[in-house]
Amino acid sequence: MQLPFLVLLIFPGILARDVFPDLEYPDLAWPSLIFEYMPVGVRGLIVAALLAALMSSLDSVLNGAFSPCRQ
């Protein structure tokens, strides 16, 4: 069950290293692949998913920080 996730996480990094060999910052490998090879509609879905994940994480942090202490 873990093998497909491993391939999905590592394959884009290996692909980006081969496609963009002169990339200055390795952190830009995934965004470079997305903006270079994905159509506009798929880019919108990816941005929407990233914003939803960010909002969910922020909501969890704020809920944990400001919830009243219960004993």
From TrEMBL:
Membrane topology, as annotated: Multi-pass membrane protein
Location within or outside the cell: Membrane
Name of the featured protein: Sodium:solute symporter family permease YidK
Primary location group: membrane
Keywords: Membrane, Transmembrane, Transmembrane helix
Family the UniProt entry places it in: Belongs to the sodium:solute symporter (SSF) (TC 2.A.21) family.
Entries under Pfam families matching the protein: SSF
Transmembrane segments: none
